[in-house]
Design goal:
The complex is a heterodimer of chains A (311) and B (648). Chain A is an alpha+beta fold and 311 residues long. Chain A is built from eight helices and eleven strands. Chain B is mainly alpha-helical and 648 residues long. Chain B contains 21 helices and two strands. Classes of the chains: A alpha+beta (311), B mainly alpha (648).
Chain lengths: 311, 648
């Protein structure tokens, strides 16, 4: 019974180190807070049962009490100590989940661009030169660096069993480092309200062994069509679609916005410099070459989307 | 523009609402004419500058809005009760949760708090009015104009649908092309200006108009909380004013402050919104803390424990409230440093709040506790709010928040602080001060029935949401599939919501019941209370205090009762100067309503005419010579004798 209850709570049922850190933090905080609740509740019940008027004599006159320096000091200092402990835990774990998880720093992360548009998710794999829609396969035991942005309202990329979420926005790229340590299919979703089709914005994350993953990549390359700019623009306009696979990515003709997440992430600057070989260069170049064009793309898209939501 | 764009069409529920709005309006108009009440309504209420009546109008509006927002909540809960429900479509659901949020915070919680503030604060400090009575009326009518403008959106033009936080670019013209978010920016702007004026008015009132002897550290805790709240209003609301103005420029005039392209910054909106939005939470919670302090002390028959640390902790909370706004978007990629800073400042708020909880508990110690209906709300507040508070600390931890953010866990948390805090607070205050306002008590039996329904219903409705959050249910999703497993807990929550609703219906029925059956108050002090407002007759005469009280300690009235010292000096009454009523605030409110309405639809020429109307109204006021009027000593003596049987 208890176990099944825990299993349904995906947040407390982690399948990777990032979600594990967060789950441990949550359970630790629950224990600390349970202690606080216990103290308050015991005092509360004690006061209410002992000092109700029906228990005192009619002529009882409650005393005048100004307060007590020492007592008040106690209930100021103890919460400060609790907050201090929680602060240390928070700062450490927040740093930990922003980085590539411990034990995986030496591996080259698999970079996947995850972009949201009109209630769907596009996943671009520059390393493999493939792209999927509404599902994402990842190898187990390898760090995955999701680079998030949006073709529209702010969305939030969340795979609870692998780790907490992060926003995807139109004018910058944010990064999320996740590792899956177990094979399996995990629920992923947008958790930030983004309009009419928000509730449908779910995707499957399939964690496979590296061998299975390679096989899947090969399958996609053998069978899926190429993603042309025309096809991509059509896809952007379509409101809700099922799964799709392509043998090329949209990063070439519609690059991710400028990467502004660098300054906040002292942790992954190292991994950044090691992998900035092909895909980054490529997108940077296209950013410079066609800066006008990409602006126009953006504008085109806005027009079309406003037309659509207008009908 | 075509008519079917102007009126919302195609929704049977909205047609029903239109018909009932028209019928109710006709009924009110016919009723007022038939009973010849137009003159009474105009002379006694619409033109009043009496702080008590303005307070009553605020509270009445807040109660109506509570029901509007409550119906929204029930519609949402009905939709979510079962998986794949077809009760509401996505667009309708989005509009409903947006208006639920806006109405409950801005048009229910705030006016309720401001209403109680209006009724009580001048009485608690021994003043005859607020510092600027006419401005007070303007504040009310601007709030009312804003509320009405916001409310008509669901039948005319369509409601806003981008969430109460209206994040850009979702709230921009590109993604929300209907006029819904125009209503949002203009309605909030108009009522927000009113709130800002209230802030100025009450700071001046409390600082300048206290009765002789009432030092700052002798003020009742509710007055202290109001003073601190209004300082927060003074700093926070200008940010909202600017943010909404930029929003209006973006949506009505085509500027690009928050758009996706052309240099717009969507996160700028999020920052401005929450720089106002987080202090706003404390604007509605601090007065509730004040109300609970007064009530707990009254019904324990004791002075408030740790008065100084209570004041100090509210000041600390008000400062910290401005240093935590980024916890609303830990997940925007600000990095571990920034998130760590905001985590710590957020968690620190738990310290002064904890101090207050323990001081309340120790106020009960060695007391003589009676469980009247206001006290019951105060007692339910302590354990439930503490639970909401500790879940808040859990949310404050950035690394963990990455998992809770935008989930039902968050929804559960803020309802667990706002309902026991603000809603129980204002209900406690309403039950407590009701006899002071109307001269009779609410029926205790019915009040207690309503209380238990509300408390039980609330917990059944919101406790399951914590678990739904941990199961991965995000907020604002209008539907979910059966295999998510969210069904059973949602069903329980929906049942709880309906129990809660029944509680509110009983509470309102009690107004009617008590009006018919409650014995009328004889001496003005039904609770054996401690502060100055109970020293005068109920209902309070228009001039409040026939003679100015002289304050010698905290809990001045209690002190006078216990030590048998006179609160008011001996001697004959003197004539009292009062401000005259004025129709101008009401007219200004009407013109502002139309100015806002025309701007919503980008009808610029009528909007310009209305704008000129506003300027004319201001000009008329600045050239007006009105020195008010005097109530003669004889008239006061007669009134006082009638109210309390005093000999002159």
């Amino acid at each position: 019974m208890l176990l099944s209850g825990c299993n349904s709570m995906v947040v407390l049922n982690p399948k990777g180190p990032v979600a594990k850190t967060q789950s441990d933090t949550i359970i630790f905080s629950i224990l600390m807070m349970a202690f606080v609740l216990l103290v308050v509740y015991i005092l509360f019940v004690f006061m209410l049962t002992k000092y109700r008027s029906s228990k005192t004599s009619d002529d009882y006159e409650p005393p005048h009490m100004e307060g007590n320096k020492w007592l008040e000091l106690i209930w100021t200092v103890i919460p400060i100590i609790i907050v201090a402990i929680l602060s240390v835990v928070t700062v450490r774990t927040t740093n930990a989940v922003e980085k590539v998880p411990a034990g995986y720093e030496t591996q080259k992360p698999l970079v996947i661009y995850a972009a949201s548009s009109n209630w769907k998710w596009h996943f671009s794999y520059p390393e493999e030169n493939i792209e999927t829609v509404n599902y994402v396969n990842i190898p187990t035991n390898r760090p995955v660096e999701f680079r998030l942005y949006s073709y529209g309202p702010i969305t939030s990329f969340w795979v609870p069993q692998l780790g907490g979420q992060k926003y995807a926005m139109s004018d910058m790229v944010t990064k999320l480092n996740l590792v899956a340590e177990h094979e399996g299919s995990f629920m992923g979703k947008n958790s930030n309200f983004s309009g009419k089709g928000f509730a449908q914005m779910e995707f499957e994350v399939l964690a496979q062994t590296p061998a299975e993953y390679s096989k899947w990549v090969k399958d996609v390359k053998d069978t899926a069509p190429k993603l042309t700019e025309q096809e991509f623009n059509k896809l952007l306009k379509t409101e809700i679609v099922g799964r799709k696979s392509f043998t090329s990515t949209h990063l070439g003709f519609a690059p991710a916005p400028m990467d502004m997440s660098e300054h906040g992430h002292s942790g992954d600057s190292k991994s950044e410099s090691t992998d900035s070989s092909k895909p980054m260069d490529h997108s940077d170049m296209s950013n410079m070459d066609h800066s006008n064009m990409s602006d126009m793309d953006m504008k085109d898209m806005n027009d079309s989307s406003s037309m659509e939501s207008g009908h | 523009m075509k008519w079917d764009e102007f009126f919302v069409t195609g929704e049977p529920m909205i047609y029903g609402a239109m018909v009932s709005i028209v019928l109710v309006s006709i009924a009110i108009l016919v009723g007022l004419t038939y009973f010849k009440k137009w003159g009474y309504l105009w002379r006694e209420w619409l033109t009043t500058v009496d702080h008590k009546r303005i307070g009553v109008m605020y509270i009445l509006s807040a109660l109506i809005m509570l029901f509007r927002g409550g119906v929204d909540a029930l519609l949402m809960r009905t939709q979510l009760a079962v998986p794949e429900s077809g009760f509401l479509d996505s667009q309708h659901y989005n509009e409903i949760f947006t208006t639920h949020g806006v109405i409950m915070i801005l048009f229910m919680a705030m006016p309720f708090v401001i209403g109680l503030m209006n009724v009580v604060v001048p009485l608690q400090i021994g003043a005859r009015d607020v510092a600027f009575p006419r401005l007070n009326a303007v504040s009310f009518w601007l709030f009312f104009a804003g509320a009405m403008l916001f409310n008509i959106s669901f039948v005319i033009g369509g409601s806003p649908d981008a969430g109460w936080s209206a994040y850009f670019p979702l709230a921009s013209l590109e993604f929300s092309p209907t006029v819904g978010n125009n209503f949002y920016s203009l309605a909030l702007q108009i009522s927000g200006i009113g709130t800002l004026m209230t802030g100025v008015n009450f700071i001046v009132t409390i600082l300048k108009m206290r009765a002789p002897g009432m030092k700052l550290m002798r003020m009742p805790m509710f007055t202290w909380s109001v003073l601190i709240t209004n300082v927060i209003i003074l700093f926070a609301f200008p940010v909202l004013t600017v943010a909404l103005a930029l929003m209006m420029f973006d949506r009505v005039f085509g500027s690009q402050f928050f758009t996706m392209a052309n240099g717009g910054m969507d996160m700028l909106w999020a920052n401005l919104f929450w720089v106002w939005g987080h202090p706003e939470v404390y604007i509605v919670i601090l007065p509730a803390f004040g109300i609970f302090s007064d009530i707990i002390s009254t019904f324990s028959k004791k002075n408030l424990y740790g008065y100084k640390s209570m004041v100090f902790s509210m000041v600390i909370i008000s400062l910290l409230s401005f240093l935590v706004w980024a916890h609303h978007f830990y997940t925007m990629g600000a990095g571990a440093m920034v998130n760590g800073f905001f985590s710590i400042t957020t968690m620190l708020i738990a310290v002064p709040t904890g101090v207050k909880i323990f001081n309340w508990l120790f106020t009960l110690r060695k007391g003589k506790i009676t469980f009247t209906s206001p006290m019951l709300y105060a007692m339910a507040f302590i354990p439930i709010f503490t639970f909401g508070g500790v879940t808040g600390v859990m949310l404050a931890m950035a690394s963990a928040d990455y998992q809770y953010h935008n989930t039902m866990f968050l929804v559960a948390h803020f309802h667990y602080v706002l309902i026991p805090g603000t809603v129980f607070g204002v209900l406690a205050g309403l039950h407590y001060w009701f006899p002071k306002i109307f001269g009779f008590r609410l029926n205790e039996r019915r009040a207690k029935t309503a209380f238990w329904l509300i408390v039980v219903g609330f917990n059944v409705a919101f406790m399951p949401l914590f678990f739904l959050g941990l199961q991965g249910m995000t907020r604002r999703m209008y539907t979910y599939s059966a295999d998510t497993g969210f069904g059973p807990l949602n069903m329980i929550a929906t049942i709880g919501a309906f129990v809660l609703a029944i509680g509110f219906v009983v509470l309102c029925y009690n107004f009617y019941y008590s009006f018919r059956h409650s014995p009328r108050d004889e001496h003005g002090d039904p609770w054996d209370a401690r502060t100055l407002e109970w020293s005068i007759p109920s209902p309070v005469p228009v001039y409040n205090f026939a003679k100015v009280p002289h304050v010698e300690s905290q809990d001045a009235f209690w002190h006078a009762k216990k030590h048998n010292v006179p609160l008011f000096k001996e001697g004959p009454y003197e004539e009292i100067h009062m401000p005259s009523n004025s129709g101008q605030p009401f007219i200004l409110g009407v013109i502002m309503f139309f100015a806002g309405f025309f701007l919503v639809f980008s009808w610029f020429i009528p909007a310009l005419i209305a704008g000129i109307g506003v300027v004319i109204m201001l000009a008329v006021r600045s050239f007006e010579r009105d020195h008010g009027y005097h109530i003669s000593a004889k008239e006061i003596a007669a009134t006082e004798q009638k109210l309390r049987g005093d000999s002159v």
